[in-house]
Request: fold
Amino acid sequence: MSKPKLQFWYDFASTYSYLSAMRIEASASAAGVTVDWRPFLLGPIFKAQGWTTSPFNFYPAKGRYMIRDIKRLSHERGLVFHMPSEFPVNGIKAARLALVGKFEGWIAAFTTAIFRAQFETAADISEDTVLETVADELGLDFARLSALIAKPDIKERLRAQTAHAGRIGIFGAPVFVTPDDELFWGDDRLDQALKWVRAL
Amino acid sequence: MSKPKLQFWYDFASTYSYLSAMRIEASASAAGVTVDWRPFLLGPIFKAQGWTTSPFNFYPAKGRYMIRDIKRLSHERGLVFHMPSEFPVNGIKAARLALVGKFEGWIAAFTTAIFRAQFETAADISEDTVLETVADELGLDFARLSALIAKPDIKERLRAQTAHAGRIGIFGAPVFVTPDDELFWGDDRLDQALKWVRAL
Reply:
């Protein structure tokens, strides 16, 4: 019997998605669950809710709290966290590259490397130079990948994945979706989601 | 040495505050921590952020998710949860009564009884008859309490407590505040907050 799957919906601009990305493979593996990495874009989802930027920017007290909360959690987990000077960044190219990685089998390594570039080193992941450095580290040919994500196919797949997220009720990130369509929102729900999958 | 205190800031209309209220005394006691019950009103706090109602009403997908999330958590914890037909309700009288209970030593029992009336039986806690039933159950004289909360003193204390919440950066509920002024937002941060207090 194949292992049950947990979908992991994430946006590269999402700080709490970073926290989950850094631990989901280990947690899922310990639970006997496979991770189905699902990059999508929060931008269109927020826009449909009437937001033009991150809620952490709209509400300064909430934004300040979020940074403190993530620093505490990062510290507990032995992670480094630096808020990038621009937030949220445009992660569309990174998300398209991740989708290529899904078909080619390197999405997990690529996703964690991009999150680390952004939140450990505060690099601007909307920049080609940053994406290229990450690709190089993973032994990937950035020129080849750039050509792939410039084609309509990958762009359309990312649009479709984002539209699907909206249809199934995703309104933030990270979100974990179980085989029986339960949604769990937030890094703090990862263990509960894995427990749910195991009980199916 | 006296036990360290953890402030528990809650609003009676807050569903996640219900979850915390039902477990905080047991969790804090196990951690050797005393609970400092702090009722306040989210209304003025939300208003200062530009919201006229609960964010769960603004964003339907988020509101639907919240109900599902709380039902799952309630089930895990052996609690009953029914969403009241009106949400959020006006909890101002209940909050004023709770403040009287703080001075008279019955705030924990009163708070949990009000939360149960609202979320277990879906009663409208803005109604005097509901408040009176709860007071009766606790052996409290509702006529005496009603006279007390009609005076300016308790009203002013609740206003001051709510203003204080805003000043220290509270933007939602529940929030736990440690002796060294760390804020932890959300029922899912209770254990972390208690751990923090123990490490001081």
Summary: The mean pLDDT of chain A is 94. Chain A is about 55% helix and 10% strand. The interface with chain B takes residues 49-50, 58-59, 61-62, 64-65, 68-69, 72, 169-172, 182-186, 188-189, 192 of chain A (CB under 8 Å). The CA atoms of residues 114 and 134 of chain A lie 7 Å apart.
